Amino acid sequence: MKLRFFTIICAFVLCSGILWAAPAMADKAAVTIEAPTTVIKGTEITIRITVMHSGNSERHYVEWIKVWVNNLEVQKWVYSPSNLPEGVPFTREIKAKSNENLEIKAEASCNVHGGKGPAVLKIAVK
Q: What is the reported pTM?
């Protein structure tokens, strides 16, 4: 009787851990973009990229972040087990000159699960 009870408890704990932990393990990197949505022509603007990911370790980390302005890649940060981001979430900034309407696109990727896709922000130049 005690052995059967112990077996049932062990099976429950094992199955519960697998079922509850599985969704949490699919942690894709995500980004948000902060910048003004309207600027005066010729202004230099600061674009802030915030990266969300649940922890960075030697085996599971943000592998890269890319930023495009009007479909031209303007910045890329690459990370590795020996060069991890400083925390979670973390931010990066770039500067851009507003000579025309801008479409900012940013994306990050986890080395295990990939990314949630790019974030896009449009900036109107007046």
A: 0.77
